[in-house]
Amino acid sequence: MSICRESSASAWRAVEVGAIGIFDSGVGGLTVARAIMEELPGRRVIYLGDTARVPYGPKSPRTIRRFSKENGDFLADHGIDALVVACNTASALAIEELHSRYPFPVLGVLEPGVREGLRAAKGGPLGVIGTVGTIKSAAYRLAAARLDSAAVVECRACPLFVPLAEEGMVDHLATELIARDYLEPLTTAGIRALVLGCTHYPLLAPIIQRVVGADVTLVDSADAVARELVARLPDAQAGSEATVPPSPNRFFVTDIATRFSEVGARFLGSELPAVELADLVE
Length: 282
Hints:
Elements: E1 2-8, E2 11-15, E3 19-24, H1 30-39, E4 44-49, H2 61-76, E5 80-85, H3 88-101, E6 106-108, H4 110-121, E7 126-130, H5 132-137, H6 139-147, E8 153-157, H7 161-166, H8 173-188, E9 193-196, H9 205-212, E10 217-220, H10 221-232, H11 236-241, E11 250-253, H12 257-268, E12 275-277
Helix pairs in contact: 1-10, 2-3, 4-6, 4-10, 8-9
C-alpha cells in the first residue's frame, strides 16, 4: 500500500499502487532507478529528473531543501511506498526534512554507500569521489564518522566526470588521463575501497577501476541503495519475485524531455519509454 496526498503537503491518503519514487536533479539518478528495477523487477518505479533546475551543487542549502520537498510532494501525489533521493547533494542537505515530512521510508544515496564502503575497506582508508558541491559539504566524512568514529576517509572532487559520462566518453583516452589526475592522491593514500559518490560515475567504473587498481573495491551507491530498499520495504520479497511491475514505470522531467531521453538510455541501460513533462507548481 502506498501514500497519496489528499489536501496538503503533510496529508497523504493510502492508495493501492505500490510504486517507488525516485528523484534526482537530472539524468544521473537513472543509475539508481536501474539498480532498483533489477533488484525489485515487480515494483513500479516513478522517476523525476529536475532538469529545469540542474545542477543542484552550486545552490544554497535552503534552495536545495525547497526543491527536494517539491520533488518529493510531486512523487507522493503519484502514490509511492518509498522515496529514494538519488541526488548526493539533496541527500546531504535535505534528507532529514524529508524523513519527517512523509509516512513512508525515505532513503538517500549517501549513507548506504558509506556503510558499504566502510565494510569493503575493512578498517583501511576509504576513498570517496563526487562533485565539488558534495565534497565541499563534507557529508561523506560526517556520515562515515557517525558509523565509525575511527574511519579514515579521503575525498576528491571529480567535476569533469559528469560531462564525460553524459557525452558517452566512458572508454576514451582523455577520460583515463583525467581520471589518473583526479585519483592519484587517493591511490597514494592507500585507499582500500572507493565510493562512487555521484550517480553519473558508475558509467565510468571500468576506467576508474583500471586507474585505482584491482585491489581497490569500487562501491556503487546505486546498488547499495537498492539493497537497503529491499531491507526497508516490508513486502519487498514479493516485489523481487515478480518479473514485471503491475503497471508501467513512468519517467518525468521538468524541462527538455528530448535530451533526457537521448542521454538517459545510457544510464538506464535500455531505451526509456515516453518521458513526461512535470509541472511542480500548483
